[in-house]
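RETRY 2/3 - previous attempt timed out on the joint model. Re-submitting the same 1027-residue input unchanged.
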Amino acid sequence: MKIHKELITILLIVSALVVRIIPINFPVFSADDARIAARGEMLVHSGTDELGRKFPLIFNSLEDYQLPLTSYMTALGILIFGKTDLGARVPFIIFGTVLVFLSYKVTKNFFKDGKIPFFALIITAFSPALIYFSKFPNEFIIFACLLLLLINFLMAEKLNRIIIPLIIICIFLTTKIFWIAIIPLTFLILHINTSLQRKDKIYLILFTVILSVAIILVFIKIPQGPRSLVENNFSSINDMTVKNGIERLRSQTLPGWPVVLDKILFNKMYTLIASFSNWLQLLQLSTLFAQLDKNGQFGFLGVGAFPKITIIPFVLGIFYLIREKKNKIKYLPILVIILTFPLLFLFPNIKVEYLLVAIPIIGIIISLGFINLSPKITGLILSFAIFEVVANLFFINSNIRNTENFRPLWINQLITDGYKLSLNNNIAYSDNFTEDLIPHIQWLTPASIKLLPLDLSYPYKYRQTELTNIKMVGESNTFYVCDDRSFKFIFATKRELERLGNKATLVKVYRNDLGKEFVTLNKIDLCIN
Amino acid sequence: MNKILKDNIRLFVTITLFIIIAWFLFTFRLTQVPPGINGDEAVIGYSALLVSQTGRDEANRFLPLFTTVLKSDDWKQPVTFYAEVLAFRLFGPSFFLLRAVSAVFAIAGGLLIFFVVKELLDFKMAFVSLFIYISIPIIMIQSHLALENIAPVPFVALWLLMLAKYKSEKNIRYIFIAGISIGISLYSYFGFRLIAPVLSIMTVCLLWYLNDFKNIKKSLKPTSIFCLTVLPFVLLMILVRNQYHGAIFGYGRPSRIVSYQELAEPFLSAFDPAFLFIKGDITPYHSTGRHGMFLLATLPLFSLGIIKIIKKKDPLFLFIMMVFFFSPILYSFVPAVHRASRLLVFIPSFVVIATMGFQVLFTLKNKFWKLTLSALIILLLIFNYSEFLNDYWYEYPKRVRNDFLKPIHLAYEKLQQISTKDKLKPFYQIEMVPPDITAYKFFEKVYFPKGLEHRSLDGSISEKSVAMVHESFAKEVMNEKLQKIGFDNYDFAILINN
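RETRY 2/3 succeeded.
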């Protein structure tokens, strides 16, 4: 019987691996994914990042600083499998698959026996969100995996004084949004785990608190560190719409309310309500079961974090949670709240990617719903769920077409053509047909970065605009006639074509993933400044 | 005997007080909030006015089942429409009365929900339910609009009441009335064509469950009576579908569904907490934009109520909870999200669930927590509701000024007052607006039943006359002989030459 159970577990984990591998080139890389992948390749071959820094601990992106673990993990994949789709994705496929096994282990901490851990395994193995995030370079799947690993170790009967601190350090080096969640999480798990000794608990709490404070202090020492935290992790206190809302409410007096009370209640309440609303929007049924990300950047279009049919066991799981008086499971909703509470501060940004960390725990709640279902109905629900996921993996074309804004496939041809031309000519690209083209060029071609001298050691929100013989043309750039080092070709959008007028000769037309003529390759003989 | 008398007095006082308070709240600033008439309100008002006077609508249909105005395919449902006809017939047409009919529906809904809670819990909780009901923003908003959205609330509440009565007394007449309620609700709001079938199927399941789950024969009688009662209402729709083309199923043009995956979002988004408790309807007509469909302060009560119902395992309470969560399931086929105005079917079950939440607080064993939490929730409710009222009555009209038609009724009213008082000849400047806008026709009939002369004013206002004119015209011809009345920066004015 034991062998039978183990065999099923292995089979399910292998299935989880398969759905994470196939198709290997899906989803198409976004600019951020391509940046991490290209950076990984640079770290492997030259030990520097795109800004020429030797093995740095803080990286840059268009929006924020990036912590190191994700980039170095990608580098590891590229080191083993080379500069290929598989190389860039394989670390995340592995993290995604390990996460599935860990969800089984964590569930076992709540339910020693029975089928619940198996159901949790199936739910996480076939969660569209977890599958999607296991297929491209990102910090969220690593974080979710490390978090389950931490929970698993924290719920053990004996405290591992080496592994646990290591995991916590890794977590701190993955994503900064959840830095503030680690202390309450440790508190909660240690509260659930009654078998640990008091001195172990104190040791661990002290370690977590000291590390949290130390990491935050180190981060804010970086010149733009505080700005990065305020703009990206606590945007609700920085965002103009909130400020305006408060100003508006300030100037509006309510009849019958004392001015002081009016200010305290309305000013502060507005921020609270706005943040609460933001948080609720991520944890709602339609996000979990209908549509995780409307843009398609972080999920299959028309698909929630879980297959639609699993809403049935989810509701039954909630019923079970409410009716059952078992001590440990009542902490599951609290765990979800602790893991997601940093999202409260993200207003007005709704970032579904940050929900990923709570998905495995919600998966456990879903698996609770199977307790009172007959095997036939359980089988039926699971079959439907797996079918939905597999169907979405088979029919990816519409997904690719409709997410071309964030994950453009059509630019590959244009980049390859451009690279060939750039070997003998200076070429230019309009910078407005995708979010950021440079990382894509770096990832898809051997084009090298034109390193610019850095004024700052940690520039914030940095955008690369030049590679060898390749230049991005923005609205502020101008074209002029010159004799030397002129640009011979331009991949231009309508904006540049209008500016160039009859100075450009059409060579080729490129259509985007929706089949619309979007960019043209043109012959020019102009300089750009 | 004394106790019965005491109970009846208590009941009478409660109902009377509720009606008075609700009437005041639901009709306060009724014609100012929202600021102008909505196009749909105008169609209902104008058609009802015509039928109340001649028995025929604009298309000359005699006592039509569904009605609309010429050149429009937006059919209006008979429940609201005939309620308006009756009101106009009894009290004479007015803009206030047009909207007040919705307030009456809202009050009727509240009263029936009171009786539902009284039947399910007790008088004390029923009393609490009245406050929860009255505090619901979407009820306040719909009571201020002469639209059909509010009309199903009393019928759904009556249906629930009858099911609750049937559960305790097993008297078949309650099933009959429940069937009638569902049948009429089909004619109360267009969206109920998608909700009533769900409620009917749920009723059949409940009746089956209540009459010995394993013995189908036993449940045959109540279920067939229910079905037979609803059936004529459905048949009538089928019979008249050609006569009122497009009135039943909206021209039979279901939205194009590209993938089954699109079905889940419209349904599940109805339960998005941020929509229900913080943001509300996405349109400015049915939401202040700053408050949810329900007050945020009722979210803890609603959550506690859900937990209590799940723990209680009472079939009727579970049924009521399921009504809340299943009733919009067919809205999956309507590709729209966050439309609170289409979800008023939630109201009765929401009130019952939130009242259950209050009951949880009132029955806490620890006195300290009982008092503290109850006081906290009540304070939050008062705070949240007063803030909503202040915003809805005074700020919202300014924000949505451009979303509604301009408040032309103010000009008509003034024109009528001045012409009657000073015995002046009233005119309407023909260049002002296209004369076939239904709202204008409605107001003209309300304020000038004998008709209002439309005249091209050619740069002057004749003596002993008063005219409704365009603001720019008023500026142009203004001289010392004329007196002008403007309307808060709107582009119409009254010019008096006395």
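The first helix of chain B runs from residue 2 to 27. Closing ticket.
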